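One thing: can you check what follows?
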Amino acid sequence: MQESKNIEFKERFVDDIKKTIVAFANTDGGTLYIGISDNGDVCGVEDSDDCMLRASNTIRDAIKPDVSMFCEIDSEVVNEKSVVKITVAQGTAKPYYIAGKGIRPEGVYVRQGASNAPATETAILNMIRETAGDNYEDARSLNQQLTFNQAEKHFAQKNISFGEQQKRTLKLIGDDKTYTNLALLLSDQCVHTIKFAVFEGTTKTTFKDRKEFSGSILKQLEDAFWYIDMFNHTQAEFEGLNRYDSRDYPVGAIREALLNAVVHRDYSFSSSTLISIFDDRLEFVTVGGLVKGLTKNDIMLGVSVLRNRNLADIFYRLKLIEAYGTGMPKIKECYAQYEKKPVIEVTDNAFKITLPNTNYYKAVSDISKLSKREKQIIGLLENNGFVTRAMVQEYIGCSQTTAITALNKMVKKNLIVKTGKGKDTRYTRT
C-alpha cells in the first residue's frame, strides 16, 4: 500500500487529520489509515477505541457542515497490529471546511495527488454553485461569522420575531445549518452597497456630493431613502391666498424605484447599485437585467418574476412591499398628472429607472411664457449657475432699476431664488 489521491497514512492520531477528511469530502472521497507511517510501514495504535473516539469528535466538532454521515470509522488488524480506518465518501454539501477557518482557502482543502492543498477561491465558488445551483440566495455564504444587529432593529420595529427558528423559516439558515447568502444580505457584514453621485446641472461634469451606504440592506434601504429626500426639494405655488407645495419627485415613485433596485438586483455580481441625482432627474441603475423570459412591457403591466424570492418574502413580511409586481404600475400612477414620464431602460446586465424632476420640467415649460428679458436671465443662469444684479445689467444692457424689477418679478413667479443681502445678493434657479 502507498499514499495516493484516495489513500493517506498517519503514524498516530493528530489534529491535522481534519484537513484530510475535508479534502476527501471535497474531492472524490478516500481512506485515511491511522497507525501506518508515510512509507507504508504498519506501526499500529495503542488504544484503537480511544483513537476512534478522538477521530469521531474531530469530525463532528471541527468540520462544517456536518460530514459525519459520509464518514465510517472502523478498527482492523493489519500485520497483527490495530489500525484505525476512516473511510470518507464525497460529500453532497461542498465545500466542507475547518470550522475555525471558515469558507476560505485556508479552511477549505482538496486532494492534489497524495497531498492536501488549499482550494482556490474559484474552486470554492464552483463547489458552492455545484451544490446550491445558480440561486444566489440559497447558496452558502462565504462568510459564516455574521451578526444581525441592524436587521434585528428593523424586525423589532415591526414587532416580528427574529430568533434562530425564524432565521431557518426565512431561509437565512440552510438545511446544512450554515448561513446562506440571503443571511449575508441582511447581516451587518453585507458586502454589497448602494452608491450615490450628486451632480451639478444635468450632466456628469461636476460632482456636488458622493455617498456610499453599507451594512445590512435593510439599513441601506432606509439610509438611501432619507438621503434622496434631502435633495427632493419642495416648491411652493400660490393661487390667491392658497399655497400649494410640490415635491421635485413623488415620494411614492422614489420608494418603489428604490425597493425595485434592492429586491430585484442580481447579487451574484459585485458591483454596487448606483443612484445619480441631477437637477432634472433621478437615476437608479441596478446590476442584472430582466429575468429570462420577461420583457419590459411585461413589467410595466405588473408581471413579476422574482429573482430573489426569499428576499422579497422578507420585505413582504416587513410590509415594505404590499404585493408582487405592483412597483412599476405605482410609479406610472405617481406621474399620471405630469407631462414628463419615467423612463425604463434595460440591457442584458443592467436595469435603469429614470424619474423626471417634475418641478424642473414645469419651470422649463413655463419659460415659453416668459418675456424676452426673462429668457435672457434664465440663459445667463444656465451658463453661470447664479447671477447678480450687476451681471444681469451688463448682460442685457439695461439700467439698474430695470434689472432689479425683472429679477424681483422672477422671484415672485418662483423661477429664481434670492439669497444674501446688499453686495452679496445672488439669484439661483429654484
Q: What stands out?
A: The longest strand covers residues 71-78. The chain has three domains: 7-132, 194-360, 370-429.
